[in-house]
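Each letter names a residue; structure tokens follow underneath. Both lines appear below:
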Amino acid sequence: MPTLAITYQTPEERRAYERAIEFVAEMHRIGLGAPDGGVIDACESVSLSQGRDTLAAAIQARAEGVEKKSTPPAATRRAARGGGRGRS
């Protein structure tokens, strides 16, 4: 059986890849099990639901990344007083 190797940077990114793989597998199962004429509706319903969850996770990850990169208060105060680098 073929295998797939995925490189990721964070545990969150790994979970996102795992969810994507599960999503594709679920779409195949739903498509095969849906009644004639109902494949699109069945797959669309699940994809919209899971898409919202994926979007929420992406937004949360972005917000956490911004919080980690935010400027520490002491550096902000120093810059406001004109004490930034390069000034004498």
Notes: The chain is about 70% helix and 0% strand. The chain has a mean pLDDT of 82. Residues 39-69 form the longest helix (31 residues). Residues 11-80 form one domain.
